[in-house]
Amino acid sequence: MISWDKKFTENNKLPSTITEEIDDSSQEQNTNLTDNQNRLLYLVDLHTRSSEGNESAEKWIRKPALAVLIYEGVVSNAFDYDYAPQSALIENRRVWINISQEGQSDVEFLREEELLHGLQISSRSYKPVICYQLSPKGRGLLKKVPRNDREAVDDFAFKSDSKELLKPVWDGSEYWLHGSFSGHKQASTITDTEDVSYVSSAYIPQCLRYGGRPTMSNAHRAHESGEAARHNLRDQDLDEVITLNSVSVIVAEYIPFGANQIVQLNNNVGSTERVQGGFISPAVDDDAAGTSMELSPDLTSVEILDYTLTNHLNFEAEINLPEDPGIVQVETFGISLNAEGTCFYGMQIEAVMERIKDNISLDHLARILVDVQQDSSEIVDSVISNYQRDLLNIIFLGDAPNRNKVNLIIANEITPHLTAEEYMDKGEYENELQQVIGDAKAAYDISEHDTLIFGAHGLLVVGPNSRRHEPLLCAYLQFITIDIFLQNYFARLWMLNDDLSN
Fold it and tell me: What ranges do the domains of the chain cover?
């Protein structure tokens, strides 16, 4: 029997594989759970503690921290999960983190089986925080978890060559794994989003157009992503369950606009000039009376499609930003801005990696959506007024470039083609869809061949007739984007009230 300091074992749980109780292989029995679920149950146990009396404090693990640990388990091959980037709010900062939808699904399964307790508490940002802890039933089942599953978790949950438990700690911009007592820390890559090579063309739904020339196509350049066929994915074995054909992506948000702002916007991009458009940059000229200036060559090219002086502006924008070596991204947006405040950023996916037009993986599409959301903020921030930029920074606590938006994905075909109910299976299909639209809320068969799926971060419309519904979908996006903005507005208002009260 190994002897350890009592205080250490209470505050920093040791892997049960080194205790005499669990070393007894006769206790290893079938838990009726998968290997991933066994390991997840054990991982939660390492970071939680139930009350042994009325005076002893309980320990719960927060959902974001558990997501970090699951991700670390995926990259260390302890969990056989996929992951994809998703926007999350961490201590009033909106960041992109690599979330495993399969891992989250297994957490929910363990809760349904009453092996985990769930706790919801409010936070200072007025967003609910979910915490987890093993239930008595879960602790009873934990004794049956095989030793090899425990050891697989121990390999990443503890400091190398030590029995020091690593705990996720947020430093305001990224996650670190801190040792329980030695001061050791190591960076987590959960906030490092990954890139894939792709080619896109500008896309604006016809219902938002008011004349002007059609958008230009980059279909003739589709081969460029195939020639590169590069990515920097850390998970080399992605499970592709669902693929889409002929995919269009629209990301939408609400920015306070009005007739005066649209007039200034048209002036900013040169809509009224003899030679329209050109290059734009978010840089501010501090020496406007000077002779020359130096700028980074990473500029955005703008081509005006159509406009009305006080009501709207539609234009194409080609992004010229540096990428990692080997990554080829031909990124062209169709952007539609109007006086009501709804901003649409659309692109037609011409190719992803070696796949041209069709058979687009949702794993790859999730990473493209990160690019669209981030780069669209950079483009629109370059052309809106200082007043609007200041307003966004106030509402989003100085983190406006990472503000949350809503995704609309339209595809002519989905493989496999199932009924709406079959996609909501709480399993592999639903997990795959949640990579691009967030937590799935509802799904409907709007015709024999067309399906509509709603998620927390967007919606997916697939089928040969899906584009006929664009006017209604764009109207729906207008309401959703206003709702998102108002949620952030009132959360900011309540936080300001708290600051004034204190």
Answer: 6-187, 198-283+295-498
